Amino acid sequence: MYHIIRSMRYYARRDLVVVVSLITLMAAPVTACFYSVLGGESSIRDITACGYVTGLAPDLSVIALFACMLIASRITGTDAGDRTLNYELLAGHRRAEAYFGRAAASLLWGGLLVFFLQALPLVYLTVLNGWGPEADMGDVILRQLLLGAVMFRIVSFSVMAATLARGAGKGMVCIYLLVEVEAIVTGIAEEMAGVQLRWWTMITAWMMLVNYDNAKSAVVDGREIMRFETEVPVQMRVWTVVVSVAFGIAYLLAGYMVFRRKDRD
Fold it and tell me: Does this model's pTM top 0.85?
């Protein structure tokens, strides 16, 4: 399986879609920071890490969300249309090695790497401009760690979808349709039934962690600011991790059950 992971790493480093996704993920925060100060009285030195995570990051997080899905789909499903899988099986690799090797590479590139890249602006903005008083650093870090669990679930679903669809493009279509269905169901549940899905769907769990809606005015060092309530309740911590990990494992196992029984073209 190690050799399959290495081959997928080799592929990911040379795949244009993967490379463009990662470059966009890195460039978008820098571009957004410069754009936010154009025509304003503030400078780039005024954008603290805390100001970024409560102001710009919620909108930019959509890029990380789709990067997870896209990269995992590319790594898992791109070679479904050629004879690569057949050659691997003929070379003596077991089906479990072929599937979970791709799943592991997807989790490394679409999960772990995307997680670090989307959190990177918090690091360099803290070094350059400081953290800022708008939110508690410990709460924001905790939310980032919980977001990692949600990413595991999203990447696992993307692996399953690309496996079932037997292609990266068709897998992305399936993922996009699920996202749309989740958005519709969430809207109906909240508007008509008054039910908060929170951590039960991928999108609501993601948005619950990246959005900072509750804020109140506060005076810090003689100036008035908006202080965001970022505390993460214990129930939210536990259920986010439990549900995300449980669904992620279930997605991976479901994908493998189909992969093990289906013949490769």
Answer: yes
